[in-house]
Specification:
With 239 residues, this protein is α/β, with parallel strands linked by helices. Helices cover 44% and strands 13% of the residues. The two termini are 33 Å apart.
């Protein structure tokens, strides 16, 4: 698939899924605007700050593909969940996506083409204890996706969400390595233990596989995929 001539802005691109997406969109021919890594066009915006989001969109130039991937994760029971962390979760995980869409969409409409991809999660479709900020914002991203999808019908723009299960990230890798060392497990055994009762395959999902779905959503075969919530969770949501 060639996306030559398109510009893709990917937020939260310092590691994990965001970095995998940046590499795959670049391989497909896109000019990449990244938020937090040094290759491509770098824009170091603090996504907690709407003014910096405005500046990021202005610096990026015309955006054809927008991937809202930036995320913060905080864990605590709700009665011990710090209010500042709640505000940060809303700002980075949800409000930043609202602002980037709000600012990028007029140009997409004017060019009669655009792709918006919001990175939700398996936790946008089911709850989890001690993760109120993450679950709430990932669920709200699905609502945002559906609302925007209906607004862009007939404009040449689509808006979809992907909902990965447990995917390759430095945080998950550290957990796997810790299990391997502490209990003398093989990598496969450590992944199965970590994912027990959740991801039926018992293995971590490849970030490249999730990124490949994002690239597909920007290709010609996806013209009529709009407002879809696409699980990439190895059967977790079916269990």
């Amino acid at each position: 698939m060639s996306l030559a001539g398109k510009t893709a802005l990917i937020t939260g691109s310092t590691q994990g899924l965001g970095l995998a997406a940046a590499r795959q969109f670049e391989a497909a021919g896109c000019r990449i605007v990244v938020n937090g890594v040094v290759d491509g066009t770098f824009v170091g915006a603090d996504l907690r700050n709407p003014a910096e989001i405005d500046a990021m969109i202005a610096a990026a130039g015309p955006i054809d593909i927008l991937v809202n991937n930036a995320v913060v994760r905080h864990s605590a029971p709700i009665d011990r969940f710090d209010s500042a962390r709640w505000d940060e979760s809303l700002a980075v995980n949800l409000s930043a996506a609202f602002h980037t869409i709000r600012l990028a969409l007029p140009g997409m409409k004017a060019r009669n083409w655009g792709r918006i991809i919001n990175v939700s999660s398996i936790y946008g479709q089911r709850g989890a204890a001690n993760r109120v900020g993450y679950v709430t914002t990932k669920t709200a991203l699905i609502g945002l996706t559906r609302a925007v999808a209906l607004e862009v019908v007939g404009t040449g723009v689509t808006c979809n969400a992907v909902c990965p299960g447990t995917t390759e990230t430095p945080v998950h890798e550290a957990t796997i390595q810790s299990l391997m060392q502490a209990e003398g497990l093989s990598r496969g055994e450590a992944e199965k233990q970590f994912l027990a009762g959740k991801q039926p395959t018992g293995r971590i999902i490849s970030a490249d596989d999730v990124a490949a779905m994002m690239v597909f959503l920007c290709g010609p075969a996806s013209n009529d995929i709009n407002g879809s919530i696409l699980p990439i969770d190895a059967g977790w949501s079916a269990s």
